[in-house]
Amino acid sequence: MPSSIKINGRTIGQGQPVYLVAEMSANHHQDFEQAAAILQAAREAGADAVKLQTYTPETMTLNLPRADFQIGPGTIWAGRNLHDLYAEACTPWEWHPKLQKIAGNLGLDLFSSPFDASAVDFLEELKVPAYKIASFELVDLPLIRRVAKTGKPIVMSTGMATLGEIEEAVVAARQAGAEQIVLLKCTSAYPAAPEEMNLRTIPHLAAAFGVPVGLSDHSLGIAAPVAAVALGACLIEKHFTLSRSVPGPDSAFSLEPEEFRAMAQAVRTVEKALGRVSYGASPLEAQSRAFRRSLFVARDIKAGEVFTAAHVRSIRPGHGLAPKYLEQVLGRRAVRDIPAGTPVSWELLGN
Length: 351
Description:
Blueprint: E1 4-7, E2 10-13, E3 19-23, H1 32-44, E4 49-54, H2 57-60, H3 82-89, H4 95-106, E5 109-114, H5 117-125, E6 131-133, H6 141-148, E7 154-157, H7 163-175, E8 181-186, H8 201-209, E9 213-217, H9 223-230, E10 235-239, H10 257-274, E11 294-297, E12 312-315, H11 326-329
Parallel strand pairs: 3-4, 3-10, 4-5, 6-7, 7-8, 8-9, 9-10
Antiparallel strand pairs: 1-2, 11-12
Helix pairs in contact: 1-4, 6-7, 9-10
């Protein structure tokens, strides 16, 4: 498998700029103008792409009042009925082509997470450039195979998954024809606690499956994605909202525009800082060489006089012989009168 993929001609992988994805999710609050504004704000904040979720309540669950379909304690959606939650959170399918056009005009990639085969068929009609498999759907191998058959790049989140489950998903995708896969380290808690994120998994995932790896982040703030980039993440996905003050299913763990911009700027700085394996002076460091220590005449010395420790010191700046030559200087005779403050050079030394 390739160590990089391409989405809309953009290469994603090691050594390439990190691909920043703003996840709209439910943060449009069923208002198309809000959705359009999210696209604009995401672009201005430094996003490379915006991701949607393509489903209806009926393609996600059953509309039944039974306890199985009620969300239990421990999440921000505790007590909600699944069907009702998805009805509130879904993005109307008729919005997709309009949002796709707006994104294209903004220079944003736009793709989505399908949750069943009908969503894949719909997104194929729109010619989306890539697909996302959500963490909860990683075990839905028939869905993964259906997406893989499109031949498009697949981004798969791995929240909750064991190494074996991730392998099953990757194998299913590859056997169905997928040649471009990105895996995302993910902690499927909302919000995710830093101590549960285990970002050191990122390089392990990359080595285990030979694919680019990124982070789908549900933590608060921007520290985790920036750290992930330092560990080799090449794609960062983060929920995006215009304002957390507007209640919604995903508002609490989404970034506002200024926060996303700060994350993007930090990621770009880290990219530059990571650089490559390099030793020796950088171009800017070369100017500092002059301030290294070197050997200087510390006391006036007459021609023919022997250099002693009283005559030579290792000091700044670096215009004389390197300090490592001190032992070879001591005991030699001065070839001429040398005033204090003269950098020591081989030409000044006799036998």
